[in-house]
């Protein structure tokens, strides 16, 4: 069994005068500190986890405070007042695996801030005021698996910023102000599985940039001011889940918007109130599609060819404009669920076939 770490927990009040030399996990939280004494950790050679949250820290200096923590694996600096981080501030933490700096008003990162922590697997910089990412910012942390930049003020993703992050699996960029994504922005993300772009200011799908994601599993672009999904927006991608909900200006899905997606299993397009038109060839080459959600949109009609392409060769499973239907009927040995409820369908020939389909089940 794994033995628990030797832990010291000091919350509020003054800093301890003596910290046991064999301490492996140290929590110093809720203190009123502008900075840390330079020698506070000088003898803690066994320290593996360090929690410095809620201390009001304004700066970390040039990083000498961490020089002797060569065994540290987890460092949490969240909920402080760190506005900037200088080059090499973490250089002594050569075994660091997880770094958390969220909710701190962080604005400025030197392009060499993360030098010296090459073993880092997880970096969380969420809920800050970061507005730009320098080209060399992440070059030294090439072993990263998770990067969280949610709830910042990033407006543009330039080409090459993630080039060195060949092991990254999860990239969280939701709740920023992203307007444009360079065609080469995702070059180097060879292992990326999850891309979160929800709640940004994208007016078009960054379709060329997405082509760099050869192992992508999930793409989430909900709540962006997209006006339409165009031909080739999602094509030749290995993703099994794509979500595009709550896009207030989305009016149409054009021919070939979702084309040749051999692994796509779930397509979520609900709660787009202005979505009134879907081209009959919008969904083509989706052999594994299991669930499509189009409820609470603005559809007055849905062409027969649309459902025929989704379900294959004109053979349909149960689908109804009034409710999401799940059942055990199979086409090509796979169940299909299509949810269309909450649309203002006009009962004419364009939707009559849905009624006919439902009569068979």
From TrEMBL:
The lineage of its organism: Eukaryota, Metazoa, Ecdysozoa, Arthropoda, Chelicerata. The keyword Repeat applies. It comes from the Eukaryota. Keywords: Leucine-rich repeat, Repeat. SUPFAM superfamilies: L domain-like (SSF52058). This is Uncharacterized protein. PROSITE patterns: LRR.
């Amino acid at each position: 069994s794994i033995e628990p770490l030797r832990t010291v927990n000091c919350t509020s009040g003054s800093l301890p005068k003596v910290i046991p030399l064999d301490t492996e996990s140290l929590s110093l939280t809720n203190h009123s500190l502008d900075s840390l004494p330079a020698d506070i950790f000088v003898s803690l050679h066994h320290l593996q986890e360090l929690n410095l949250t809620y201390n009001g820290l304004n700066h970390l200096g040039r990083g000498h405070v961490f020089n002797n923590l060569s065994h540290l694996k987890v460092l949490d600096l969240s909920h402080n007042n760190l506005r900037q981080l200088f080059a090499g501030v973490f250089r002594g933490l050569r075994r660091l695996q997880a770094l958390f700096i969220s909710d701190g008003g962080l604005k400025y990162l030197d392009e060499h801030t993360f030098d010296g922590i090459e073993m880092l697997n997880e970096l969380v910089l969420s809920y800050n005021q970061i507005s730009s990412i320098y080209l060399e910012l992440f070059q030294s942390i090439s072993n990263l698996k998770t990067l969280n930049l949610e709830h910042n003020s990033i407006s543009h993703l330039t080409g090459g910023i993630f080039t060195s992050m060949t092991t990254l699996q999860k990239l969280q960029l939701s709740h920023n102000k992203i307007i444009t994504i360079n065609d080469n922005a995702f070059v180097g993300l060879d292992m990326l599985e999850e891309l979160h772009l929800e709640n940004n200011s994208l007016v078009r799908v960054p379709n060329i940039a997405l082509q760099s994601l050869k192992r992508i599993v999930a793409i989430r672009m909900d709540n962006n001011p997209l006006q339409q999904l165009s031909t080739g927006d999602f094509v030749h991608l290995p993703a099994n889940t794509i979500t595009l909900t709550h896009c207030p200006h989305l009016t149409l899905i054009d021919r070939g918007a979702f084309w040749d997606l051999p692994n796509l299993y779930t397509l979520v397009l609900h709660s787009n109130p202005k979505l009134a038109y879907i081209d009959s060839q919008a969904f083509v080459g989706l052999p594994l599609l299991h669930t499509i959600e189009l409820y609470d949109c603005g559809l007055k009609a849905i062409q027969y060819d649309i459902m025929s392409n989704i379900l294959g060769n004109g053979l349909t499973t149960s689908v109804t404009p009034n409710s999401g239907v799940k059942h055990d009927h199979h086409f090509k040995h796979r169940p299909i669920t299509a949810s269309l409820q909450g649309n203002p369908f006009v009962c004419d020939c364009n939707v009559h076939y849905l009624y006919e389909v439902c009569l068979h089940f």
